[in-house]
Amino acid sequence: MTIRVLHVASELYPLLKTGGLADVTAALPAALIEQGADARLLLPGFAPVAAGLEDLRPVARLARTFGAPEATLELGRLPGSELAVYMIRADAFYARPGNPYLDAEHVPYGDNAQRFALLGWSAAQLAQHLDPDWAPAIVQAHDWHAGLAPAYLRAAARERGANVAPGGVRSIFTIHNLAYQGIFPAQQFDSLGLPRDFFDMHGVEFYGQLSFLKAGLYFADKITTVSPTYAREIQTVAQGGGLEALLRGRAHDLVGILNGVDYAVWNPSSDAAIATRFSATRQSGKMHCKAALQTRLKLAQKHDAPVFGVVSRLTEQKGLDLLLAALPEIVTRGGQLVVLGTGDASLEQGYARAAHQHPESVAVELGFDETLAHEIVAGADVMMVPSRFEPCGLTQLYALAYGALPLVHRVGGLADTVVDASLENLADGLATGFVFERFEPDALTAAIRRAFALYGRSRDWRDTRSRAMQQDFGWAASAQRYMTLYRELAGQNTVA
Ligand code: ADP
Ligand code: GLC
């Protein structure tokens, strides 16, 4: 029997992306379809989504609008793919210029609770046959934006006096990042239309406030996160963000499934964005990509200077304050640093200042630029991902594919995907990058020195780079794990 699954999220590459979530919501449903699932997506109708979907047609009026003058459900298709995408058209909520979550001053919109409640509620409606032609057996809600979907499903079950939502629909909540908790003042709870007793420690209440993330974690039938190591880390006080007790209590329902790479988008042998294509067996094009990157960013044209790259949101999570402190280590040893990022003003200023001080060896582009991101990963020798915490991380996986050895902190998905170039790992033919243990300047500096040392041994460098490029982090294996989970959940339907 074909399993119908609805993915509920706020971003979708290439229409709307602020981070890795968009890459996942584009690639995972497609990978599931290849495994035989019938997967669709539900998104808020943010301006680029409404403009980018093809063949949009109305499906139903939404009876509840959470304060928007009107809201309708539409169904369209992602251009160039068969992926069916439902979209909530509520222009008063979603047709705002710029960032989907923040206003022009980088402050969360005052009505975010209502904007994203509409997303979760609409998912639960779809599960109850709002579209007469298609209804999911599984609703998979991604991050806090979709966190209320499992709560509305539970409320619908309760109305029928059952444990399981109408039609036996099951829910999964997927944590991409536990640091974003969707927290709102308690007073906003009344506007959500959930049963009163859901505002409880055993429910959506979180230290006196309302948390959409907690709603997802508490009410979903299963919880997944995006790497096995992160699944363990979030059960500890240090990394649980106050939710570790809940997560430990649900440990038997929690599983870490690694993200994958969409090799149709991130593949150096077919990438239209890069100067020259290359592959594990024909690596010479990478030198051209490096030279093109140096030219584009006005760095000294030195083919023998190792280029360290960063493509990242500039936030506390990413550990780029630590890298800024270690920057002299790269420059004085004759390396170059290329940074593409946007985010915290202090980090933007710090990196802009470094570029100003070292114009020949440090280049910084502040902004979000998909093409330049590909050019950097293609041209860099090393990609830096020194994150404080990292649920999965996609940048290091793209780096492996493009032979830019990842240099990472041993945490979350970074620990699960990169093997350090220690002597023993080199000797055993296992090394794919550089890994440091402690989140401290001297540990990062030592890893940078290790990168320089290996770079000086060109044979070892080439071998390691080839190995990195041959790693397979495609979506198929992960999609199979999700399929197993879906089957397990669907098999429980009979208790309804
Ligand atoms: P996160 O989701 O925490 O930001 P990931 O490593 O999972 O981290 O995914 C980041 C994604 O966003 C990658 O596809 C990366 O290329 C992209 N990205 C991040 N910053 C930028 C930027 N400034 N310009 C272009 N792409 C970016
Ligand atoms: C989050 C995490 C990142 C992960 C991405 C996609 O943004 O920070 O580690 O790769 O989601 O799951």
TrEMBL record:
Q: Which Gene3D superfamilies match?
A: Glycogen Phosphorylase B
Coiled coil (residue ranges): none
A GO molecular-function descriptor: alpha-1,4-glucan glucosyltransferase (UDP-glucose donor) activity
Q: Give GO BP annotations, semicolon-separated.
A: glycogen biosynthetic process
Pathway as given in its UniProt record? Glycan biosynthesis; glycogen biosynthesis
Would the keyword Transmembrane helix be found if you checked this record's keyword annotation?
no
Q: What is its EC number?
A: 2.4.1.21
GO cellular component assignments: cytosol
Keyword annotations: Glycogen biosynthesis, Glycosyltransferase, Transferase
Reactions catalysed, semicolon-separated, are: [(1->4)-alpha-D-glucosyl](n) + ADP-alpha-D-glucose = [(1->4)-alpha-D-glucosyl](n+1) + ADP + H(+)
InterPro entries linked to this entry? Glyco_trans_1, GS/SS, Starch_synth_cat_dom
Matching entries from PANTHER family are given as: ALPHA AMYLASE DOMAIN-CONTAINING PROTEIN (PTHR45825:SF11), GRANULE-BOUND STARCH SYNTHASE 1, CHLOROPLASTIC/AMYLOPLASTIC (PTHR45825)
Family under the similarity heading: Belongs to the glycosyltransferase 1 family. Bacterial/plant glycogen synthase subfamily.
Protein name per Swiss-Prot or TrEMBL: Glycogen synthase
> Which lineage is the organism of this entry classified under, starting from the top rank?
Bacteria, Pseudomonadati, Pseudomonadota, Betaproteobacteria, Burkholderiales
